[in-house]
Specification:
Layout lengths: L2 H22 L4 E12 L2 E12 L2 E6 L6 H8 L7 E6 L2 E2 L4 H5 L2 E4 L11 H12 L4 H11 L15 H13 L5 E5 L7 H13 L6 E5 L3 H7 L2 E6 L2 E7 L5 H8 L7
Parallel strand pairs: 3-8, 3-9, 6-7, 7-8
Antiparallel strand pairs: 1-2, 1-4, 4-5, 9-10
Length: 262
């Protein structure tokens, strides 16, 4: 047997083990949202929204602008407080224990949440201290290589392109090895290579003990990387199904229509 054949066989065994582990792992919820309400002035954004995300899966949030996707993600990330309702992440009440929750989540929003006058390396050093990462330099080196920004480590963030800043934001979100990733349109501004890196990271988090919740306006990408789909409309979950059960053509038609059509 050639070395390539042995490697292929080994890779096949590893993939089977991963599938078996995912199948046998209890479908416990990593995130539970119940009766969530959020308004901005007279405008209701989330209206008694219920949602759960199990361990070992990626959930993609779809819906037109104004459906409440980003607001929901900001609440899960403890960046915005709801008016009422409950949010539990890894068994922790996120509304009462935000600091503890933030130790278990990695967040990438529209803004990269980086310091423009610091270099890439300095930003990661700062956030490593914030997250209490022990011996951070090996982790920083690993992530810089992972996002293929090791050559730009000493560049000030404000001099980077939007796509490069998004790569660094991904590294920031991964620094403390969180159990859950919350990603708001993470593909925005990424070139083909960076998008492949993103898809690889999401794939790794579709594993027991981990989870991903992401929003996207790219339906095809969402269905490609996710295990389940939740479509939001009028501040509620209008559809929540495994990707395999989704009628793509129907979803495409609904996805293109105004708020409330789903």
């Amino acid at each position: 047997m050639t070395k390539q054949a042995r490697d292929d066989k080994s890779c096949g065994r590893d993939e089977k083990k991963a599938r078996d582990a995912k199948r046998d792992y209890p479908r416990i919820s990593m995130i539970e949202v119940a009766k969530l309400i959020k308004s901005y002035g007279p405008t209701g954004v989330l209206r008694r929204l219920d949602l759960s995300a199990p361990s070992g899966e990626a959930l993609v949030l779809l819906g037109p602008n104004g459906a409440g996707k980003t607001t929901l993600l900001r609440i899960l990330a403890t960046l915005t407080k709801p008016d009422s309702g409950s949010v539990t992440i890894h068994g922790i009440d996120a509304l009462k224990n935000g600091e503890l929750v933030r130790q278990n989540i990695g967040v990438v929003m529209h803004s990269p949440m980086l310091y423009g006058d610091l270099t890439v390396h300095e930003n990661l050093q700062f956030f490593a201290r914030m997250f209490g990462v022990p011996e951070p330099e090996p982790r920083i080196t690993e992530l810089l290589a992972r996002i293929e920004m090791d050559r730009g480590a000493e560049t000030r963030v404000r001099l980077l392109s939007h796509g490069q800043q998004k790569r660094v934001a991904l590294a920031r979100a991964l620094l403390h090895s969180p159990h859950t990733l919350l990603l708001d349109e993470p593909e925005s501004g990424l070139d083909q290579r960076a998008r492949a890196i993103l898809e690889g990271i999401i794939s790794e988090y579709r594993a027991p003990g981990h989870s991903v919740i992401m929003t996207t306006h790219h339906l095809e990408l969402g269905l490609q990387v996710a295990d389940s789909v939740a479509a939001l409309a009028r501040g509620r979950v209008a559809l929540h199904e495994p990707v395999a059960n989704v009628d793509v053509a129907s979803l495409q038609r609904q996805f293109a229509e105004p708020v409330g059509a789903l």
